[in-house]
């Protein structure tokens, strides 16, 4: 009789145990979802553009210039616009003036850095050297797999050594985030515009505080 009572109690308790386990699993999922959605403030890596006059110059590998001739003006324009919008007190030289100066001065990349700032008449120069820009993986034009990379240097005209970069950063981004995206899924124009946008946004964020996802690459599993 005692054994039957114990068995009956076990059967009565079991649904509550299972329900408790289910609730714990649900709470865990909710907690994970909340954590993944968290945002964090990222501070500017360089604040020396504030209340300064600034110019943007862009250099690119010959192969990039040949295959994507609009990359240099698009990058220059996006960076100039982003700095003007987000950096306090800054005065940005029209990117078209900077670009025109580069075209008038074919050997500008060989000049002392301080001379570049003097020629452009600004306190700071954002010097972007694009060493990679492609829309496909090497040897496979049937897949969209964009990659852009650049070294970003800051020239300070009033520094103790204006002919050396005050700060340097290496930037590399991929676009799109979808893996093995077929050529039929999107146009070349859209992929190029998306890559330029992500690339220049990443560079611009060096210069101002901003909010980012705490876990940008994490996705909840179903």
Description:
With 222 residues, this protein is α/β, with parallel strands linked by helices. The chain folds into two domains: 2-37; 42-213, Rossmann fold, CATH 3.40.50. It is built from six helices and nine strands, in the order H-E-E-H-H-E-H-H-E-E-E-E-E-H-E. The protein has a five-stranded mixed beta sheet with strand order 3-2-4-6-7, with helices on both faces. Helix 3 (71-86) crosses helix 6 (188-204). The longest helix is centred in the N-terminal third of the chain and has 35 residues, at 2-36. The radius of gyration is 26 Å and the shape is globular. The mean pLDDT is 89.
CATH homologous superfamily descriptor of the largest domain: ABC-type transport auxiliary lipoprotein component
CATH class placement of the largest domain = Alpha Beta
Strand content: 15-25%
Task: Assign the CATH topology of the largest domain.
Answer: Rossmann fold
Q: What is the global morphology?
A: globular
Largest sheet: 5 strands, mixed
What is the domain total for the residues? 2
Give the % helix. Answer: 40-55%
Number of contiguous helices: 6
Radius of gyration: 26 Å
**Mean of the pLDDT scores?**
89
Distance between termini? 47 Å
